[in-house]
Amino acid sequence: GENVEQHPSTLSVQEGDSAVIKCTYSDSASNYFPWYKQELGKRPQLIIDIRSNVGEKKDQRIAVTLNKTAKHFSLHITETQPEDSAVYFCAASEKYSTLTFGKGTMLLVSP
Amino acid sequence: DTGVSQNPRHKITKRGQNVTFRCDPISEHNRLYWYRQTLGQGPEFLTYFQNEAQLEKSRLLSDRFSAERPKGSFSTLEIQRTEQGDSAMYLCASSLVSGQGSEQYFGPGTRLTVT
Fold first, then answer.
1. Which residues in chain A are closer than 8 Å to B45, comparing Cβ atoms?
2. A96 to B95: CB separation less than 8 angstroms, yes or no
3. What does the pLDDT profile of chain B (115 residues) look like in tens digits?
4. Average per-residue pLDDT in chain A?
5. Are A98 and B56 in contact (CB under 8 A)?
6. Contact B31, B81 (CB under 8 A)
7. Which residues 6+ apart lie within 8 Å of B59 measured at CB?
8. Nearest chain A Cα distance for residue B34, angstroms
9. Is B41 close to A103, i.e. CB distance below 8 A?
10. What's the rounded Cα separation, in Å, for the pair B106 and B4?
11. How far is A46 from chain B (nearest CA, A)?
């Protein structure tokens, strides 16, 4: 089955800095890669996703890149704000089916 | 509220008791998923339905767990003879499968504590 590794497990940045979270996956058949943000005690919220037919996608301060050859994808957050503080999960799936999640990255943005 | 809803939000039960959780998906979504999340971990897939058909079950889903989606709308997840290791957040998600893909949207979860 699919295995998703996520790094780092914790990330502390100053407000205004950029943050990068990296994930690798094992199943070359995976073709859909979403990212979720989960605040304490709340549901995971889909923030951005990428499909295997594109290499990069941007949405305001958030971007995701995908390297299918190397089987890794990354989340980039620019101009971080304190409200970006949360746990971020990457995930992978084949044929838009069940998601296999990474273990999460706790991002702390200090004012 | 047109998002995914789950009930109850919290459940405390004694070991050996049975519990049942309910999930109401976004109304036009044809797929419904159950995941389990423990502290410090990402959600782990348990099972999913397309309409009323249960299409896949994880190895994590022991025979004490059963899920139904009888009319292709809401779903229930039952755990029989609960064990302390069942304590976790149980998350439901739904999606609309189409040619463009299927983003999964999560409910708020049911937190189960087995004492």
1. 98-100
2. yes
3. 579 999 999 999 999 999 999 999 999 899 999 999 999 899 999 999 999 999 999 987 889 999 999 988 999 999 999 999 999 999 999 999 876 667 999 999 999 999 9
4. 94
5. yes
6. no
7. none
8. 10
9. yes
10. 6
11. 7
Residue B31 amino acid letter? R
How many C-alpha atoms does B27 have within 13 Å on its Cβ side?
A: 2
> How far apart, in whole angstroms, are the C-alpha atoms of residue A69 and residue B66?
39
For B88, other C-beta atoms within 10 Å of its C-beta total 20
Cβ–Cβ gap A98/B48 under 8 Å: yes
DSSP single-letter state for residue B98: B
Residues paired with residue A47 on neighbouring β-strands, in sequence order:
none
Amino acid at A56: E
Distance between CA B73 and CA B52 in Å, rounded?
8
Among partner residues B42, B103, B105, which is closest to A102 by beta-carbon distance?
B42
Where in chain B does DSSP place strands (E)?
5-7, 10-13, 19-24, 31-37, 44-50, 53-57, 65-68, 75-79, 88-95, 105-106, 110-114
